[in-house]
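Recap from last week: sequence in, structure out.
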Amino acid sequence: MPTLIRLSAYLSGVLLCGSTLLVNPAYAANSVQQQQFFEAISALCGKAFAGKITAGGSEGDGFSGKPLVMHVRDCTNHQLRIPFHVGDDHSRTWVITQTDTGLRLKHDHRHKDGTDDKVTMYGGETRDTGTANLQTFPVDDESIANFKQHGLTQSVTNEWQMMIEAHTFTYRLTRENRDFKVEFDLSQPVALPPAPWGYK
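Predicted structure tokens:
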């Protein structure tokens, strides 16, 4: 319940102390909305939540029919690491970083032995302020180059969205002919999963 109270506070509007906005001074260039979004996820640190595919799932896609768990595992005042576990596949970690211009989302992909996948640390940066509960990350040039290098031309128009509400966290990937969405139930924390591959 305290977590939900804090989460509601972050999402309800501008967080004030007297008349002063509480923001991380090291990242003052971030918008109020981005700061609230970041802090709302930070409030979940140390907890894991089960999810389900609500759009774009299909048999054999590697996700459908498997337990899906997000774990807000590592949190600092400028970066969040959120492993996304798909059954026994612990290869994926979302990395959200505050930059001097906004927020950056990267996907850290590892093999079981902890080494980097050939397609890893792809993602994008925000191009607008977004809202306190929704941020959009269009694919960046570095990721486009990596996708092309490895024959993933269908991914060069990727756009990711993350949305956090009082009881739901949503991860969404869209591109031409693709709309994939997973929703996680924040009202019921689940048992913590193992460390993602490559992490202790």
